[in-house]
Specification:
43% of the residues lie in helices and 15% in strands. By secondary structure, the protein is of the alpha/beta class.
Length: 203
């Protein structure tokens, strides 16, 4: 039997309480606390599952990238601002407005915002597993995906303006159109010259 205990998972396709918290324009913190965090990238989680499945590893293993980051450092790597506005006492009640906005705030997350969490990942590495991302690199990858998300969303949405302009040019009576077959003749200089303009008679 094998059990994998993953640290906070980060990645473009992961939706957790912490990824939602980090997606806010400013990340709230508990006043007087700057907890330590470890992260594991979603790709490393998939590779860890593959590793234990094909290498017959038994036991309990922590899955987290190397390195420990302070929460203020994480927020800086994401390009965000931090706001130490949550009170040390009654923190759960103070998180009420965020819950009403749809942010899930479980008790475990509140404990991490206060005290942090750190685990030893050497046991899994001793079986031959190699991480692709450190905790810092996982945070940087999340920040990059969050910055690209609006751009990618715009690329996925259908582009309608070009078709509307084309329809306008096709049917508008104010747009000059060449007669069929005349454009090439004009470019080749084969069109008959315009008749000369008669000069007005002099008195």
């Amino acid at each position: 039997m094998t059990i994998l205990r993953c640290a906070n998972v980060l990645g473009p396709d992961v939706d957790t309480s912490h990824t939602r918290l980090f997606s806010l324009p400013a990340v709230p913190m508990i006043l007087g606390f700057d907890p330590r965090y470890q992260f594991v990238h979603e790709d490393d989680v998939v590779h860890a599952l593959e590793h234990v499945a094909f290498n017959d590893t038994q036991g309990i293993y922590n899955v987290t990238g190397d390195g420990v980051l302070a929460l203020t450092e994480v927020i800086g790597l994401l390009g965000k601002r931090y706001l130490p506005i949550l009170p040390p006492v009654g923190t759960g009640l103070a998180m009420g407005p965020l819950r009403r906005l749809g942010l899930r705030v479980p008790d475990e997350m509140l404990n991490q915002l206060r005290f942090g969490r750190g685990v030893d990942n050497r046991k899994l590495k001793a079986t031959g597993f190699q991480y692709q991302y450190t905790s810092r690199e996982a945070a940087l990858a999340l920040g990059e995906s969050m910055r690209l998300r609006p751009v990618m969303a715009g690329a996925i949405e259908p582009y309608r303006y070009e078709r509307e302009v084309e329809e306008f040019l096709r049917w508008s009576p104010h747009v000059r159109r060449d007669e069929p077959g005349t454009r090439g003749r004009q470019e080749a200089g084969l069109m008959e010259p315009s008749p000369p303009v008669e000069e007005s008679s002099r008195e």
